[in-house]
Amino acid sequence: MKQALLLALLSLTLWADAHIFVYHRFGDEKHASTNTSLAILKEQFEFFKQHDYKVISLQTLSRALKNTEKIPDNWVVLCIDDSYKSFFDNALPLFKEYDYPFALFVYIEATDRGYGDFMSWPQIREASRYGEIGLHSYAHKHMVSMSADAIKEDTIKGKNSFVKELGYAPKYYAYPYGEFDTKVKKAISSFGFDLILNQNVGAVSHKSPQNDLDRIALTGDVPLKPKLRIKYLDALWHWPKSYPVNGKLNKIHVTMPPSISRAELYISGGEWEYITVKEGEFKREQPYPLTKRRTRVIIKSGNAYTSKIIVKE
Fold it and tell me: How many domains, in total, are found in the chain?
């Protein structure tokens, strides 16, 4: 009995879940919906420090996933999307003060064209001394509305400019707006990035697919502790694959561990509801009208989450 308990505790220790968080702007009150104040950022950094969380690089996480190594529960990865100038001006000094690595995903066209609110290439090169740089597309468009060829052309253009300015090819890619479908995923995966990141609710385990890693947004005054309690739910989404043409979600089909018999379901615009899972399978076929262009479908069992975003073209 004691030995069985010890083995169970060891398995929880050896196979835990890391968390990837994503920020956008810092100390920029003009854009409240994407802003994180410096006071809140410092509060979060202090929490990581005081509670023994280890802020790691994407490279460290990538190596562990590739080798199916243990993923410690205290690992945290910090990403910054869009390469807004407020990161360089306001937040980078704080990252340097705490010696926390980061992954900055560059909106290439904004930098190439010198858009005023975005970092310049010299600033990105300076930032690369302290963190990793990834690709956030060239034109930052809603890719679900683009053809596969157009997605590839955008990615090639972004990679070429990235290599020209930084001298190496990007290893990591983050979907613009966190939006993708089967077409987008296939097109981006064809470039062989080490990691591809979304913006779905979830955590990262040794089972996480390297071309579909969940990231949790930390915009505004987001309570950090509940986010750190989120676990990875090992699930396979069979349906939905994309936004339904008639605007009604007629089918949901997800498989998960057979030990799960009861879970909760959330669809944007609705409320959480309890669902029954039979032998590791949840299937529902009934029309659910979608009221938003961008819809999240989330299933959770306890603190373990799996989610999918479907976007109207």
Answer: 2
